[in-house]
Amino acid sequence: MGRYLVTGGAGYVGSHTVLALLDRGDEVVVLDDFSKGHREAVPSRVRLVDGRCEDPKALAEAFGGERFDAVLHFAALSLVGDSMRMPLRYMAENLATLSAVADAAVAHGCRKFVMSSTAALFGFPERIPIDEEQRLGPVSPYGESKLMCERALDWAERIHGLRFASLRYFNAAGADPEGRAGEDHEPESHLIPLAIDAALGMRPPLTVFGTDYDTPDGTGVRDYVHVTDLADAHLRALPLLEERSVRFNLGNGTGYSVRQVIEAVERVGGRKVPHVLGPRREGDPATLVASSAKLRAETGWSPRFPGLDEIVKTAWDWRVKHPKGYAGAQRAA
């Protein structure tokens, strides 16, 4: 049994990773300020510290004299569109948050750190699928902020011996198959929940941004990885930190277009997805698909939910049972 600090553990990916840790018998402490996350997403048996990662008092309370086997860091600003409006805030806050947590980890004798990174590091990729050897070239302040964070961890390893895993997510999707957690963002920017809400009449018709891409049906193609599979990858990366730091691209390895996602939601939910066609969004590549070959080879990771319909079904089921998201829910045991 291990002991882990999870920053941002009340958020979407963080809360599912907390569940994965608890399911294997680990002890977990969560540090979150609930600016984006939900208190109800964190099981009641988890010690929960309400505070910002940059706050020395909150960090002192979180570490609380405990010896953690590793820190898993999810707390960050993460909307590409917002970062284009607030570039300096994104770069300053994401680097400051990571630096404060990593510094506290070093000070408390913890030398293992897992960072939630992003496919936005690659900008417009040179080839598909995207492997770890491709040139890094962020085209958004969000992507740039995560690249800065990776570089900061390089220095923390060099100087303090802090080994780290940087997991570069593509598109997290779905919900806990047991219904214990799901996706609840406001504003929501992810395609699958937006399509589900449109089908359920809970949001206006979905806007399809761009129909003239060089893809089979003209709409953008993305790689969707189930959030539970993503959480599993974090746990599988931890043993590698005994000897070295690692960087992994984390996706399903299969691309699906916007139209294919709409069709999947309609199949799973038995309802039409109202949608309108719109122009491209600036900065959107036609195709983003990950190569997870390195992750698979070095950790044995393989997605339990590789199919789009499987992913959509877990998201649909959670949304139907939680039409208001976590509002009004109670913390589970």
Compact overview of the structure:
The protein is an alpha/beta fold and 333 residues long. It is built from ten helices and 13 strands. It starts with a strand and ends in a 12-residue tail after the last helix.
Estimate percent helicity.
25-40%
Distance between the first and last residues' Cα = 19 Å
Q: What's the oligomerization state? A: single chain
Q: At the third CATH level, what is the topology name of the domain at 3-173 and 225-251?
A: Rossmann fold
**Spatial shape:** globular
Q: What is the residue-mean pLDDT, rounded to a whole number?
A: 96
Overall structural class, as computed from helix and strand content, comes to alpha/beta
- The ordered H/E elements are EHEEHEHHEHEEHEEHEEHEEHH
EC number: 5.1.3.2
Domain NAD-dependent epimerase/dehydratase: 5-251
Subunit structure: Homodimer.
GO molecular function: UDP-glucose 4-epimerase activity
Task: Write up what this structure looks like.
It is built from 10 helices and 13 strands. It has helices at residues 12-23, 56-63, 80-85, 87-107, 141-160, 191-199, 227-237, 258-269, 293-299, 308-321; strands spanning 3-7, 27-32, 47-50, 70-73, 112-118, 163-169, 171-173, 206-209, 221-226, 246-250, 255-257, 275-278, 287-288. It has a 7-stranded parallel sheet with strand order 3-2-1-4-5-6-10, with helices on both faces. Strands 7, 9, 11 and 13 form a 4-stranded mixed sheet that branches. Helix 5 links the parallel strand 5 (112-118) and strand 6 (163-169). The longest helix is centred in the first third of the chain and has 21 residues, at 87-107. It starts with a strand and ends in a 12-residue tail after the last helix.
